[in-house]
Specification:
Layout (H helix, E strand, L loop, with lengths): L10 H26 L8 H24 L3 E3 L2 E3 L2 H22 L1
Antiparallel strand pairs: 1-2
Helix pairs in contact: 1-2, 1-3, 2-3
């Protein structure tokens, strides 16, 4: 029975888990940016559900930066810089500050 019990989780394991979560979240932000260029994709139920999930997951984090940085108007279009800034904040704060603090 003792062979089935998991080993204790160390601080390094938790730090590696955080690194993985940060990379996945950066990938979701990247997917959101790429998908924003293709809004005229024919309707597909699976694609709509996937993009809806990406929007639902990334909107709360990106909205924090949208309150601080408005989109830049370039004629009829607007340039949204919040995904770039949000990614830099994730990398700088998450990977360079929080993960080393957790790892000890």
């Amino acid at each position: 029975m003792s062979d089935l019990l998991p080993l204790a989780i160390s601080r390094t394991d938790v730090a590696q888990y955080l690194v993985t979560l940060i990379y996945v979240y950066i990938a979701l932000i990247f997917i959101r940016v790429i998908a924003s260029y293709f809004r005229n994709i024919p309707y597909n139920r699976f694609l709509a559900a996937s993009l809806g999930f990406v929007d639902d997951v990334t909107n709360p984090y990106l909205n924090v930066f949208r309150r601080l940085i408005p989109p830049i108007r370039l004629g009829p279009a607007a340039l949204d810089l919040t995904p770039i800034i949000a990614t830099f904040v994730l990398i700088i704060v998450g990977l360079n500050i929080i993960v080393p603090l957790v790892a000890g």
